[in-house]
Give the backbone structure.
Amino acid sequence: MKKIGFILISVLLLCSGCSKVKQALGFDKDQQLSDSTEVTDENNTIAEQELTKVSFCSVDSIVRLSAQIPKFDNDVLNDSVWAYITMNFSNLEEAYAKNHDVKAAFEEAGKQYWEGMSAEIEGMKEEVRSNMEEGDEFPDYMFNWEYSNDIILEDVTDTYVTFVDDGYQYQGGAHGIGWLVGATFDKQTGKRLNAENILKDPDGAGFQQLLKDGLTEYFSETCDEEGCELKDCLFDDPDEVTIPVGNMRIYKGTFIIQYQSYEIAAYVYGKPVVILTFDQIKPFLTEEGLKYIK
């Protein structure tokens, strides 16, 4: 795989019609970055880097895409991060292969997605028109579609790098659907971390109880029914709840387990999340896992 140059893609929403998307738990992706900027917060420093700023926002604001990609000294890690980025943006890898220009590739990939989505909208409009009777009012409200996807660099330490994929899609109906998917990579090997390689027994009774306690705490704040219990909120038996595959991350010494809307509970409960402190997670970590959470 081609190596990306010394870059940090920090996408700024360039179209005035583009609304800001939510700030992640850590890194503020709406922070304005110059071509050489040190980004810091209270507990974390993302080293000074040369930046390439790119973004895509369609003229009608239907499609908005962004990413933040750090360049590290480790090419294996860089390749892992690039593979992760291209996995989340359709056509980006193919577009980049044409001339190895990240700005041009991001623009082309975004344009292709927008053109495909626009064609789908027009096709559906024609279908609706063909079934309308004289005097019917065209239902414009059905086509206020939008799609946004943002890859956010959330945390960097000596041992790991963490991203979140924050997205939203609306294609008609009562509401859209959002997602928030985390990814943590070993800074030396470039390996993406998961429950299987940093937890001793993620399906064991001890960790399962920790997971249920975390979910009980989450739903106690989101369930407005008196006497609401965990079993009242989940689709399935609480004893069968497990870590979502490929959706855990480490952030400033905490272990974050993030579920999606509809994954284990109704849409009204949002995206359930369990945040475990170092003291909570330590007894369940493998020797490899211990090096990431200190």
